[in-house]
UniProtKB/TrEMBL annotation:
Lineage: Archaea, Methanobacteriati, Methanobacteriota, Stenosarchaea group, Halobacteria
PANTHER family named in the record: DOLICHYL-PHOSPHATE BETA-D-MANNOSYLTRANSFERASE, GLYCOSYL TRANSFERASE
Source organism per UniProt: Halobaculum roseum
Name used for this protein in its record: Flippase-like domain-containing protein
Family annotation (Gene3D superfamilies): Spore Coat Polysaccharide Biosynthesis Protein SpsA, Chain A
Gene Ontology molecular function: glycosyltransferase activity
CDD domains documented for this protein: DPG_synthase
Membrane topology: Multi-pass membrane protein
């Protein structure tokens, strides 16, 4: 989509202009006060009547040269583009913006508004469900009364629209949630009959992130939060045909957008490092305290006293061996990004960042590594963060593959019934049928996870976007597009180190070895407890250990506590008890000792590296926090390599 005066250099791919008539920026547009945008997706049956009705209504209260009507045609696959072209040729006040792909309702509106000529920007649904007799009032709210934003409402008390239940109930529910969660004072956020001033649009449009149905709501909520004047007035409204809103898919998508906007407006501004650290400490203490409610602390202490120190010492050595491999993997990733560094330095940088993750919640230590390689070796911040992202992606892929492979194996070999019987025997009161169903669901998720890994890797290794191809088969709305974008970020992380097949295999192979050593460490710790050895055969010990450690590490992905303390122990204990029949106190003691061994090695290596590199952990966190603030002010995630 591009404006008729030719702005293809600023237009998104697959979008062009078919505008006929006066264009924004021409001298003839000086008198245009009002720009009406009609978002159109497959509206061949109605678009001509809508355009002619709109032009006729505007002529009743505006001079003929004071307005323009823009058809923002959003990737239609019917005759809407041809009809819009013809209408634009017949009337120079009509413009047509065409897109070869869907931008989303909000995306199409935003693109058209950016290129519109008027100071008063209006849009409404092309089905003309709202009585056009209200158009003059809508325009007047902005043009004459000085409001920043105006919206029609179907739910103002005493003027409620008569809506079918299948539309009215979800609409009322949605508006109640928005009013409650996002603290909006408006009654109707999704009425497709709105206007705003040019100044309000310029202030708001970059902040509005959604590009589909939630765009209206986010615009109104952000306008109120910024203190803009918002007018809501009752309109006569009558449903026209079937709504294009999918009451399952789109309502779910908008629900997630409500949560996202609530987090951005109400939670994120209040998150400071001090509060994050305090919350992390509280969560850690609470997690450990809750587990002791169900465990006898004296039994846990007794299990510790009975542990054999020899396997624990062996576990410490095994875990220590994994660290040079972590440094080797990081060196391979940086090499693919064009930087060659010594193994010792990079191993120390990894030690420091992981120590930071133990001290600070929300994985603040990850950013510390970018600071270390920047400060000590001059590696630019963008490269440091890109290398971290690639490493995290391979970690997550490897852990997910381990857990998913175990679950998929259970599903394929019908091992769910065996595991269900074991869990029922080990956890009294839980029927085998319920456990079996739960495992089957989990196993199905495991199969999907493993399949997703193949799709992600295939996308990373190919010019073709397999992720987008697969996801777009189900839907093309903004929420699904958002999900696809998140998955594509993982693919991009893989692609960062997939420049050659050899580098991809090397980094992936080292990741498998690193996490296998992590599992072996836990197995040796379990072997230190006689009760664990007595409860399981060697084969059971290996299977349960791989699964418990993989799931425990996946639980640590949630950045709720420093180093995942409490989360790891809870997941590890539940699986070792449920699958292995190990007494709960012993399983918990093993989980705590396993985590303690790994954290002790990490902290010792981190402290030694900080002394050797003369790096202050708190200074590094402060430095990266300032970097984030600077990037946010500049409107980008991270400064450029030239900064």
């Amino acid at each position: 989509m591009s404006s008729p005066d030719g702005c293809p250099d600023t237009a998104p791919d697959g979008v062009d202009g078919a505008g006929i008539g006066t264009a924004a920026g021409d001298a003839a547009t000086d008198g245009i006060r009002v720009s009406v945008v009609l978002p159109a997706f497959n509206e061949a049956a109605t678009i001509e009547g809508t355009v002619r009705t709109t032009v006729g209504t505007l002529e009743e209260f505006l001079p003929n040269d004071a307005f323009e009507v823009i058809v923002a045609e959003d990737g239609c696959d019917d005759d809407t583009p041809e009809i819009a072209d013809r209408l634009a040729r017949e009337d120079d006040r009509v413009l047509h913006f065409h897109s070869d792909r869907r931008l989303g309702r909000g995306g199409a509106l935003e693109f058209a508004f950016e290129r519109a000529a008027g100071d008063t920007l209006v849009y409404f649904d092309t089905d003309l469900a709202t009585d056009m007799g209200h158009l003059e009032e809508l325009v007047a709210k902005i043009d004459r009364e000085g409001y920043d934003v105006a919206t029609g409402s179907r739910w103002i008390p005493g003027d409620e629209a008569d809506r079918p239940a299948k539309r009215g109930v979800p609409s009322r529910g949605f508006n109640v949630i928005v009013r409650t969660v996002l603290r909006s004072r408006l009654r109707d956020h999704q009425c497709g009959f709105k206007a705003l001033s040019r100044e309000a649009f310029e202030e708001l449009h970059e902040a509005v992130e959604d590009d589909h149905w939630f765009w209206d709501t986010e615009l109104l909520v952000r306008a109120q939060r910024r203190g803009l004047r918002v007018a809501e007035f009752p309109v006569e409204w009558e449903p026209q045909g079937d709504s294009k809103v999918d009451l399952v898919r789109d309502v779910f998508g908008m629900g997630s957008q409500i949560v996202r906007l609530w987090w951005q407006l109400s939670v994120s501004p209040r998150i400071t490092r001090t509060r994050t650290v305090a919350a992390g400490i509280v969560l850690t203490v609470a997690a450990l305290a809750l587990m002791t409610v169900y465990l006898d602390p004296s039994a846990v202490l007794s299990a510790f006293e009975g542990a054999d120190p020899v396997p624990v010492a062996a576990a410490t050595l095994v875990y220590l061996l994994s660290w040079p491999l972590r440094g080797l993997r990081y060196r391979d990733i940086l090499t693919e990004l064009g930087y060659r560094e010594k193994l010792g330095f990079l191993t120390g940088a990894v030690f420091i960042s992981q120590t930071g993750n133990l001290v600070f919640p929300a994985r603040a230590g990850d950013a510390v590594r970018a600071y270390v390689v920047k400060a000590r070796r001059g590696i630019p911040y963008p490269t440091g963060f890109a290398s971290l992202a690639a490493e995290r992606v391979f970690d997550l892929l490897t852990i997910t593959a381990m857990a998913g492979a175990v679950l998929a194996g259970l599903l394929v070999t019908d091992g769910t019934s065996v595991v269900a019987a074991a869990v029922s025997a080990n956890v009294p009161g839980v029927p085998p049928a319920a456990v079996s169903r739960a495992i089957q669901v989990a196993a199905g998720i495991g199969v999907v996870a493993v399949a997703s890994l193949f799709v992600i890797v295939a996308t990373a290794r190919s010019d073709r976007n397999y992720v987008r191809d697969v996801v777009s088969r189900f839907s093309s709305d903004s929420y699904v597009d958002y999900v696809a974008g998140v998955i594509e970020e993982f693919a991009a992380g893989v692609q960062t180190v997939a420049g050659t097949r050899a580098s991809f295999a090397r980094v992936g192979g080292v990741s498998v070895v690193v996490w296998t050593l992590d599992v072996v460490t836990a197995l040796l710790v379990l072997a230190a407890f006689p009760a664990a050895i007595d409860a399981m055969t060697v084969t059971q010990l290996v299977v349960v250990g791989f699964f418990a450690v993989s799931v425990g590490n996946l639980a640590k992905v949630l950045p709720l506590s420093p180093g995942g303390i409490g989360l790891y122990e809870a997941a590890f204990t539940a699986l070792v008890v449920g699958l292995g029949g190990v007494p709960a106190a012993v399983a918990f003691a093993a989980a705590v000792l396993d985590h303690a061994v790994k954290n002790a090695v990490t902290v010792a290596g981190g402290v030694a590296s900080m002394i050797g590199f003369n790096v202050s952990l708190t200074d590094a966190v402060d430095e990266t926090a300032e970097l984030d603030e600077e990037a946010e002010r500049e409107g980008s995630e991270y400064p450029s390599d030239d900064d």
